[in-house]
Amino acid sequence: MQQLDLQVVETALHWARDRHDLWLCTVLSTYGSAPRSPGAMLVARADGSHVGSLSGGCVEEEFLASLAQGELREPAQVIRYGESDDDRRRLRLPCGGILQVLVEHRVASDEWRAHLEGLQAALHGQHRLLRRVDLTCGTAELLPDRGGERTSVLGECVEIRVGPALRLILAGVSPVAQACAGFAKAIGCEVIACDPREDMQGVLVEGLEIQPILPSMFIAAGGCHDATAVVALTHDPRIDDLALMEAVRTSAFYIGAMGSKQTSAKRAERLSRVGGLSTAEIERIHMPIGLDLGSKTPAEIALSVMADVLRVYRGKSRNAL
Q: Where is the XdhC Rossmann domain (predicted)?
């Protein structure tokens, strides 16, 4: 889940509370090149007001044109964009891809508002949930997530896994961390920078306010959830090591620390001896952090870090790259 999709859900809830009927769209699958991945969302009203994105703009235009013509009135249906049986209405995406989209037409009701509130709570919570939509009757429910593909169509049911927006915790501020913040914001991450050092207060990190607290304390207070990446990029063991020691005790999907292979080996020994970390806990830490791109400058190192974070988040092995 990205920050833009979180805005979609919160906008949908706001409109539902104002008694507006609305259409909630979710990308289920893509074929070929496509600008947004499965799970991306858009919400719209009959007057054309909308928030979110399904593509680079062409799909949104086609969808809104259908609304203006009084179409898409079923409670839930799956629409394919990028192909059509009717050549006169064939929509060809500039990227050459095909999108399969769940389109839900929801009338204002207490039940629908309660569903959106549950969805919002899941996105702000600690764990992922499964959203199941019945295509025959349009009912939607939230269930515990047992793992699997982000989206799937199983007969007459659509399943969509939802959870918190991808969060990046910068454990300490450095030039590399500052560059990471820029990349992370660009791909829709929530970015949190923690650094208690006085000389770091007032440093601008992509417009973010630096929290004057040890990253380890922020993490220990519940700062991590299933979609959290913790990156330690300061070379200061007082900052980095404590953050790593706390992070391995959380459900964070990515934990990494900057340093050479020699530095990383020394850190691993120190975390075992001083921090009491087990072999399994140490193996959770990406040391050295990032993909081996031959990076030298802070921006290049940050690019390698965020590329590796995204690789793990998408479930790709290094050999698959």
A: 168-309
